[in-house]
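Homework help board

Subject: predicted structure for assignment chain

Our instructor gave us this sequence and asked us to write out the predicted structure in token form, then describe one feature. I got the tokens but I'm not sure how to describe them. Can anyone check?
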Amino acid sequence: MLSSCEKSDNSAAQAEVQVVKAEKVNLNVEGMTCGSCVNSIETALAKQNGIIKGKVSLEENACEVEFDASKTNTDEILATIEKAGYSATVVQ
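My token output:
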């Protein structure tokens, strides 16, 4: 078995690491009546640029959203939920 001391070019394998400024926001959501409502909101959030994770609870009328603050913000998240047909407010 031969081994080589040559450095291989792993530039393609060495991906640039980006630091994501992740934030979380908790919301009260009004207007949900069933599981389809939950799916509608989660689908709308998943399509929004900068959303890392959106978890909606029908039982608690709540939504927890984790997002990249360099790509979106709370106001845009609220607008996305409103465009989906629901009313949302930030939990303080």
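Reply (TA_rk): Your tokens look well-formed. For the description, you could write something like this. The CA atoms of residues 4 and 83 lie 59 Å apart. That's the kind of observation they're looking for.
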